[in-house]
Amino acid sequence: MKIYTTDKIKNLVLLGSGGSGKTTFAESMLFASGLIDRKGDIASKNTVSDYQTIEHENENSVFSTVLYAEQNGKKINIIDAPGADDYVGSVISSMRPTDIAAMLVNATSGVEVGTEIQARIAENRNHPVVIVVNQLDHEKANFENTIDSLKQSFGSDVVLAQFPVNAGEGFDSIIDVITMKMYKFSGAKCEILDIPAEFADKAAEVQNELIEKAAENDENLMEIFFENDGLTEDEMRSGITAGLINRGMFPVFCVSGLKDVGVSRFMEFVTNVLPSPAEMPAPAAIDGTEVKCDASGKASLFIFKTAVEEHIGEIVYFKVRSGEITEGMDLINTRTENKERISQLYVVAGKKREKVEKLVAGDIGATVKLKATKTDDTLAVAGFNVQYPGVAFPHPKYRVAVKTVVEGDEEKLGDALNKMHEIDPTLIIEYSKELKQIIVHGQGEYHLRMLKWYLDKVYKIDVNYVDPKIPYRETITKRAQADYRHKKQSGGSGQFGEVHMIIEPYTEGMDDPKMIKLGDKEYKLSVRGKEEHDLPWGGKLVFFNCIVGGSIDARFHPAILKGIMEKLENGPLTGSYARDIRVMIYDGKMHPVDSNEISFKLAGRNAFSMAFKNAGPKIMEPVYNVDVFVPSDRMGDVMSDLQGRRAIVQGMSSEKGFEKISAKVPLAEMNKYSTSLSSITAGRAMFNMEFAEYEQVPMEIQTELMKKFAEEEEED
Ligand SMILES: Nc1nc2c(ncn2[C@@H]2O[C@H](COP(=O)(O)OP(=O)(O)OP(=O)(O)O)[C@@H](O)[C@H]2O)c(=O)[nH]1
Ligand SMILES: [Mg+2]
Questions:
Q1: If you count Cβ atoms within 10 Å of the first and of the last residue's Cβ in the chain, which end, N or C, has fewer?
Q2: Mutate to test the pocket of ligand 1, among 15, 24, 263 (most ligand atoms within 8 A of CB)
Q3: CA of residue 24 to ligand 2 center, whole Å
Q4: Considering only 81-85, 190-194, 298-302, 681-685, which range has the smallest mean pLDDT?
Q5: What ligand 1 atom has the least distance to the C-alpha of 83?
Q6: Which ligand 1 atom sits nearest the alpha carbon of residue 59?
Q7: How far apart are CA 365 and CA 358, in angstroms?
Q8: What pTM, to 2 d.p., does this model score?
Q9: In terms of DSSP bridges, do strands 100-106 and 9-16 run parallel, antiparallel, or are they unpaired?
Q10: What is the pLDDT of residue 606?
């Protein structure tokens, strides 16, 4: 394998909605570059990129795949990302090592919701985007409509670098206005011809637009443009490079990945015009230092992906961020400070690995047998203490509880889930002590089906998915008082403890209690001690010692608090955690011989429980901020579905051809939302959700929950 210098490297990620043709296009690029001599296809399950068994079964990409192609003495690193939103984690982690995104758009459908989602991801990360209109060979291909939808979505910076001569069945020719030539393909073979007279005017007009856009992105070019009334091909190229880097233009290319039309010309553009890694702004390390993508600098690399492969085990994929990485090199994991040796260095195309001696700054490669290094880690030469920031993934939006079918498989399951999280950080595993369930959070139904597939086929663990419980909370809405005497006389030493307390709802910033009225009684309290406890499950417990005259010794106060805490952890209504309560202990009794800690713990717990039940207890439920993006024609259906989910709509607005609905929705109503939203809108909507707050559940639901809890208690 040849060693490529930084200026000869281009890092490209393929984006686009599911089925837009990324994997097929990648296959065509590898074929055009001669890396493979036979082209695979999706139906035959033999593409280089979709090589995992699950991808064969599903006939779509599930993971991002690292590939490369060589062309014109340059190397194009390609990451083929999956299009389905369930696997958005792979898209996001593929952005980090790449410099430019090729956004594939299916010419039969134009911009789809998946295109929108991924365009936003690219925009948020400031990623330059080249648009590739694909499937132009399809009988239903419509180039003009596709461009209209692109302009609506990406704005007026969408400019044609090419247009098809004969879109539809038999598509084989494109006109390129950078070179001002016509490219006629027969398979991967290409003839370069003069533009036929009938297309000359259109080509000139399209070229003008491109030149103007290119000039707009570079002041010098603008001057040259006005002086010479145009730009040369080289000037145009440098204008496009500049325009791409600052996202001032989104040039459009025309291809059929399936029929290899336009692909080699697109690769020529990639190698000639796309910025190399050193031309891109150097991203900062965690401490803010800028590390230049420079092969003569100190060596460092960033790990963006981990996979487990048959025969070789764990393989990590990285981008060389600076310096040069050579085989046998010793590096330090700058997070753990452990030493790691790069015993083998590879370039990869799917499962095909080729050894290389050296990779320079900007290049992408893989290695195996690292001891304790994972995705998001930085390895650097000793003394170079750099750490690159990890990747921020979106919040999960689908949850299930996992149960092993065979008792005793739990440990095996735990190990497998941890491994799967390493491979796919958007699978989040929560061992909920509170709900007594293992809850897996993911991006959607297919995402969690993928996990089940792995548990079954790879880890050989039989599991069931069951409905996840909801982490309810309990609190009170008014003041209440209770006395409780715990007394036990049995043979030898007895037990005695008596506690009088008042409890009330706690809100941030309230004054300490002084005079408390309850019914027709008044309690004058003088605070001797105050403890504020932030509860591990959210909310607070504030404990006031208002005991006068030593009716309960100070040594018993911690036991009383402990009793209250026990009850908070196992709320009186449904066994859920209780929160946001303050407790005033103001009186009680001791016995000179029989009083001990256990007696006061029990007295505290039971007094609290009694008071709680009289204090207008309420069940609270987690509520999420949910944003739904939906095409206008489906707005009504989505809205009425949301209303059925007890949603409270907070606002509506239009955004790039979509209506955005912002609502607060209880988690209990969001079960399988992604699946039903998808069925209501035929997969044309998207949403995200994030925890907002706890809110009281409606009375009828509270009654139902309490009834269910009482029944469960009885069963136990
Ligand atoms: N007619 C035609 N069909 C194509 C073309 N490219 C891909 N297809 C077909 O479209 C389907 C999806 O192609 P893929 O390459 O798997 O698309 P993808 O974008 O990788 O899909 P995901 O991995 O699910 O995101 C397959 O059946 C392909 O054969 C094309 O240029 N023309
Ligand atoms: Mg694919």
A1: C
A2: 24
A3: 7
A4: 681-685
A5: 25
A6: 16
A7: 10
A8: 0.88
A9: parallel
A10: 94
CB 199 within 8 A of CB 205: no
Closest CA to 486 of 612, 610, 382: 610
Pairing of strands 540-545, 581-589: parallel
| Stretch 193-215: mean pLDDT | 94
Q: Does the pLDDT of residue 682 top 90, yes or no?
A: no
217-261 pLDDT, tens digit per residue, is: 888 888 888 888 778 888 889 999 999 999 999 999 999 999 999
pLDDT in tens, 705-716: 999 988 988 887
What is the pLDDT at residue 698?
95
The radius of gyration of the chain's CA atoms, rounded to the nearest angstrom, is 32
Which class for 297: exposed (0-12), middle (13-18), buried (19 or more C-beta within 10 A)? middle
What is the distance between the terminal CA atoms of the chain, rounded to a whole angstrom? Answer: 66
What is the distance in A from the centroid of ligand 1 to the CA of 106?
Answer: 9
Of 520, 534, 526, nearest to 584 by C-alpha is 526
Q: Which helix (H) or strand (E) holds 3?
A: none
What lies within 8 Å, CB to CB, of 150 at 6+ separation is 105, 110, 111, 131, 158, 250, 252
Length of the chain: 716
pLDDT band at 142 (very low <50, low <70, confident <90, very high): very high
Distances (CA, A) of 102 to 115, 134, 279: 11, 11, 18
Q: Which of 23, 105, 109 has most ligand 1 atoms within 8 Å of CB, for mutation?
A: 23
Closest CA to 436 of 407, 405, 468: 468
Residue ranges of E strands in 37-113: 65-71, 74-80, 100-106
Pocket of ligand 1 (CB under 6 A): 16, 18-24, 41-42, 60-61, 82-84, 134-135, 137-138, 256-258
| Half-sphere exposure (Cβ direction) of 640: Cα atoms closer than 13 Å | 5
* CB 68, CB 75: distance < 8 Å: yes
Q: Which ligand is nearest to the CA of 133?
A: 1
Q: In ligand 1, which atom is closest to the CA atom of 259? A: 31
pLDDT band at 565, cuts 50/70/90?
A: very high
How would residue 496 be classed by pLDDT, with cut points 50, 70 and 90?
very high
Taken in order of first residue, the domains within the chain and their CATH numbers are 6-195+249-279 (3.40.50.300), 300-380 (2.40.30.10), 398-469 (3.30.70.870), 474-574+581-614 (3.30.230.10), 619-701 (3.30.70.240)
Residue type, 695: E
For tokens 């024609």, the residue is 633
Decide: 629 and 521 in contact? Cβ < 8 Å.
no
Token reading at 712: 């469960």
Ligand that comes closest to the CA of residue 29: 1
- Point out the ligand nearest to the CA of residue 85: 1
